[in-house]
């Protein structure tokens, strides 16, 4: 089954206002637990909007709210609504448009395209060329969709391709404490 044909935009909070006049029909917002609702969302009218709050961490850490399976169930329910709207334009944002939003985008693309998990992740290279999808989100989606590691394999393929194009990112990933996510 091919990847869905709906239009997909990924951004961070600072870029939200740039996209409000582009015919967006669905917005998925994933922001930190204590982040205020971005005022720029007021510029989006008559949209299907899901606002999730969890921090950009890949494990449980004191003082942070990590993603849960229930969050990903909500992402997948949102994906069902997107899939039911044939000419949809989906905007997905998190704080910086790097980790949670790119993970959610790949999950939504792969949700109705079993066997296309790697293609979904590699498409992120074109949509958001500096992303680093949140591993925890992908792990939960892989389990909930019954993909038996295919989403995680797609994530690894994406990271290899990204690091091949931008090897300097490996040091940045190590410096932010996520070196364990670097492919072997």
Automatic annotation (TrEMBL):
One Pfam family from the record: Y_phosphatase
Q: Which GO terms describe its molecular function?
A: protein tyrosine phosphatase activity
Q: Cross-referenced InterPro entries, in alphabetical order?
A: Prot-tyrosine_phosphatase-like, PTP_cat, Tyr_Pase_AS, Tyr_Pase_dom
Give the SUPFAM superfamilies listed for this entry: (Phosphotyrosine protein) phosphatases II (SSF52799)
- Domain (Tyrosine specific protein phosphatases) spans 76-129
Known Gene3D superfamilies for this protein? Protein tyrosine phosphatase superfamily
Q: Where is the signal peptide?
A: none
The name this protein goes by in its record = Tyrosine specific protein phosphatases domain-containing protein
- The source organism is Enhydrobacter aerosaccus
